[in-house]
Q: What sequence folds into this?
């Protein structure tokens, strides 16, 4: 994967290891490389503990990498320490929509304050000009996300789940970022409002020309919104490819199990293979053993002595398995 | 509204249950006229969005509601016992032994400072006649039955040492320790990964089939309900709006809300353009003047007749039914 | 104050009658503190040996003390001193303690260790004895009572602030604030700190009661306030010797008012917290 000026984001061999005492290291993210092009929507899926939350925090620069590069439009932003990133010109370019709208809105700030905050802190001289330009920027963002103006003076506890979600989106896009990371944006919402929010996200992406990194449990939603999907397992990428391909012809056994596990109306639970066993430990993992060994329905001896590398299985699809 | 006799007398019968909560900001009419019957051994799904009253209904069955709750009408009968009139002592006998419940967020539902083996033993000592000497063996057996790997070692583990999926298995072990006749599972897999979800639900299905245990599965996920339930009850704002055997509900939904819910559920065939949403919000259940049909304001098939006529509830012994003046 | 805020205050006051009573008493005390010298029927310092140790009567509602001074007047005027001491001490320890505790709770690491040790050192002493020691070392004045009270009270705020900040440190809105371009310090000051104010408000109110009691206690044993100044603690001390001889009113009334003041602040705690918490506002 070449780090090109064109790509909005390039992750090159990103690693994040946490010391967990007595010299042991927890390999939260291990050797992850991928790219997101302009206007592209990339889905990131994996079970809890796979490292996607850590990866997201590395990409949004809330956390520093142990090694590897994070490159934004050809500039290495991984070098900038997380605690200094807020003051750089890159901060407004990479933003995030959080999973739980209730938890991610300050209970003592109104919707207006929440949306105005990035403008106040990150706005250029035109944006910070004074009260009027600020109010304008906030009103515009609210309009873009379909949040009625009369709701702006309200506090989070006076807003519905869908309205809070819109505030969260408005504040993330008010500074027109290039890359928007969405961490399960509809997981906490009722299914009745889910479609509206998803359509809003699709429209916004088009209107503002953003790229998306869409993290989600809900594979159906990922399928709907994403061009490409990355599957992570225990800190590594196990499969990557166009969304359609991944769901119709999953190459990695874990992806296969994942896709089959999605419940669907009219689906038959009997047909899926339930993954037995527990995931391997992410602490000091043995580099010679496949991370999926122990749960894989197709495991063989080779999987225990040689960890598979990501390789191209067919056009556009890469997977880390000896037997794909 | 079709109504066929259901056969042998049901294990659980909720008849015309209406319930309200007295709060600072008014009285919340949480349930109205709910009828529900569960037969021995069957799996009934209760689906609905937040605010539909599905959890309230399950708490009402077990009589573990908040002190502010008041049943204003109706009856709940479990295996012939009148649940609403029963004393606290008789209820304690029933809870955990005849009717068990598992909750969302398994990690917080377990006692964090007590080892899981002990927690299972607590249930055994309270509700069964297991001898002290046999307790540990039975507890380990219970853990093995829910497929916790290495149960002898895990017996001494604390909840924080286990993953979310494992905690849920422990909850299931606790719930099933005394072989209840009815298991109420309230959103048991929300928040768990889809692979863990599949494993947990298939475990519950298997154990239920083995013991001929009835299950009530409460969920907001229609797809999940469709895969694991024999019959589905759709609730909206405190009413039961539709009831049908699973395949019938999805092939021929009759209530507009049901149809909308099905169309809003993401699935393999849908694209973002075809995914439906449901306009409007739930009505404020504190209003004194709630209409007969609480979906009226958001329904595209709404007619004048909807508010004019009285709307009968689906009878408790019906195999299928819809609460609507203008069904599909 | 907006109409909504006033409405909310009225709601909180009427919702719980106890809170209402506490508010009224508190207002009463504040009035005494502000206008004491003008309300008092007699000059609190005017002694009249002829009228010494007179029991409560129409002329002197609370009786007179050993120097013939009207006890009621002295109690009224003492409100200002006692409140002044309590408010200053609590304000000082709140500002410094909450700041230190917040830094410790937010940053952890060295900040937490050092600040923790400071708090531990203070708490290692029996607090009242420490206060006595500080006053003795710095000099027997009212200002030093304030300083001593503030110091021994620091760990209280450090602990509360640290715990409350710690809980909120990982909240979504903290990360969102960082994404919006706030430095860590700004996140702490502008986003987290306002959220810990409601629980701290309760603590402040309870603390005020304790601070008054502490000041009275120090004066009771002769530190800080000197005669002829009127202060509840010193009045109780002066009256203690007369209880045996039957002049109960000299000690009782100041003691009762002191108790009432502490009681008022304790009751006020919950009410204040309800006002400050926007979630309670509908």
A:
């Amino acid at each position: 994967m070449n780090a090109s000026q064109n790509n909005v984001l390039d992750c090159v061999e990103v690693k994040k290891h946490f010391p967990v005492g007595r010299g042991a290291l927890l390999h939260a993210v291990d050797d992850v490389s991928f790219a997101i092009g302009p206007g592209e929507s990339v889905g990131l899926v994996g079970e809890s503990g796979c490292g996607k939350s850590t990866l997201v925090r590395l990409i949004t620069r809330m956390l520093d990498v142990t090694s590897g590069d994070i490159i934004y439009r050809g500039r290495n932003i991984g070098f900038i320490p997380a605690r200094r990133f807020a003051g750089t010109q890159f901060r407004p370019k990479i933003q995030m929509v959080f999973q739980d709208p209730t938890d991610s809105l300050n209970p003592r700030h109104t919707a207006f304050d929440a949306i105005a905050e990035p403008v106040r802190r990150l706005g250029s001289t035109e944006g910070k000009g004074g009260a009027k330009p600020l109010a304008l920027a906030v009103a515009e963002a609210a309009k873009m996300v379909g949040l009625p103006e009369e709701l702006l003076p309200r506090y989070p506890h006076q807003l519905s789940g869908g309205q809070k979600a819109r505030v969260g989106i408005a504040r993330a896009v008010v500074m027109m970022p290039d890359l928007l990371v969405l961490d399960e944006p509809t997981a906490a919402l009722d299914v009745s409002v889910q479609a509206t929010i998803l359509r809003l996200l699709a429209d916004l992406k088009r209107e503002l020309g953003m790229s998306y990194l869409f993290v989600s449990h809900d594979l159906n939603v990922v399928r709907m919104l994403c061009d490409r999907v990355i599957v992570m397992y225990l800190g590594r990428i196990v499969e990557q490819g166009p969304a359609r391909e991944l769901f119709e012809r999953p190459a990695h056994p874990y992806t296969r199990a994942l896709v089959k596990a999605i419940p669907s109306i009219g689906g038959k639970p009997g047909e899926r293979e339930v993954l037995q066993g527990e995931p391997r430990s992410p602490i000091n993992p043995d580099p010679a053993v496949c991370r999926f060994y122990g749960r894989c329905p197709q495991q063989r001896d080779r999987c225990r002595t040689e960890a598979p590398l990501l390789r191209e299985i067919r056009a556009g699809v890469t997977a880390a398995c000896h037997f794909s | 509204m079709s109504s066929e006799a259901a056969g042998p007398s049901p294990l659980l019968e909720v008849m015309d249950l209406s319930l309200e909560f007295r709060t600072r900001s008014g009285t919340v009419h949480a349930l109205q006229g709910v009828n529900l019957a569960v037969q021995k051994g069957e799996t009934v799904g209760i689906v609905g969005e937040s605010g539909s009253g599905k959890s309230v209904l399950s708490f009402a069955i077990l009589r573990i509601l908040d002190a502010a709750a008041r049943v204003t009408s109706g009856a709940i009968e479990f295996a012939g016992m009148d649940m609403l009139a029963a004393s606290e002592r008789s209820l304690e006998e029933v809870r955990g032994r005849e009717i068990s419940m598992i909750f969302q967020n398994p990690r917080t539902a377990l006692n964090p400072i007590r080892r899981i083996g002990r927690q299972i033993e607590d249930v055994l000592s309270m509700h069964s006649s297991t001898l002290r000497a046999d307790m540990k063996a039975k507890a380990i057996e219970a853990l093995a039955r829910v497929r916790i790997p290495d149960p002898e070692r895990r017996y001494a583990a604390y909840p924080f040492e286990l993953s979310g999926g494992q905690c849920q298995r422990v909850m299931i072990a606790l719930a099933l320790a005394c072989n209840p006749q009815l298991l109420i599972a309230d959103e048991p897999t929300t928040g768990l990964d889809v692979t863990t979800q599949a494993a947990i639900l298939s475990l519950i299905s298997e154990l239920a089939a083995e013991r001929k245990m009835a299950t009530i599965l409460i969920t907001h996920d229609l797809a999940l309900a469709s895969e694991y339930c024999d019959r589905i009850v759709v609730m909206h704002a405190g009413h039961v709006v539709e009831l049908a055997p699973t395949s019938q509900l999805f092939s021929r939904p009759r209530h507009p809300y049901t149809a909308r819910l099905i169309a809003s559920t993401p699935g393999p065939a849908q694209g973002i353009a075809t995914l439906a949403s449901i306009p409007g919000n739930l009505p404020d259940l504190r209003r004194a003047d709630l209409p007969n049909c609480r979906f009226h304001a958001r329904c595209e098939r709404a007619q004048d007749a909807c508010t004019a006529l009285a709307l009968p509830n689906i009878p408790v012994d019906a195999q299928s039914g819809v609460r609507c003046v203008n069904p599909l | 104050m907006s109409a909504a805020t006033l409405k909310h205050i009225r709601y909180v006051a009427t919702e719980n009658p106890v809170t209402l009573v506490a508010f009224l008493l508190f207002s009463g005390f504040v009035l005494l503190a502000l206008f004491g010298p003008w309300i008092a029927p007699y000059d609190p310092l005017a002694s009249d040996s002829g009228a010494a140790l007179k029991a409560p009567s129409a002329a002197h509602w609370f009786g007179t003390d050993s120097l013939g001074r009207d006890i009621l007047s002295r109690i009224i005027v003492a409100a200002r001193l006692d409140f002044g001491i309590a408010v200053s001490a609590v304000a000082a320890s709140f500002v410094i303690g909450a700041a230190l505790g917040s830094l410790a709770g937010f940053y952890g690491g060295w900040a937490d260790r050092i600040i923790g040790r400071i708090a531990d050192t203070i708490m290692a002493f029996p607090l009242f004895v420490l206060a006595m020691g500080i006053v003795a070392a710095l000099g027997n004045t009212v200002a030093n009572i304030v300083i001593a009270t503030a110091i021994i009270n620091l760990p209280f705020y450090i602990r509360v602030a640290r715990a409350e900040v710690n809980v909120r440190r990982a909240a979504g809105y903290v990360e969102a604030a960082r994404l919006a371009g706030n430095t860590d310090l700004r996140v702490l000051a502008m986003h987290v700190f306002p959220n810990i104010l409601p629980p701290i408000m309760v603590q402040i109110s309870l603390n005020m009661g304790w601070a008054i009691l502490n000041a009275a206690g120090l004066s009771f044993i002769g530190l800080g306030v000197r005669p002829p100044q009127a202060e509840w603690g010193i009045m109780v001390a002066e009256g203690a010797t007369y209880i045996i001889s039957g002049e109960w009113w000299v000690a009782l009334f100041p003691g009762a008012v002191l108790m009432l003041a502490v009681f008022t602040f304790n009751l006020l705690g919950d009410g204040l917290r309800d006002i400050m918490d926007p979630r309670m506002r509908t």
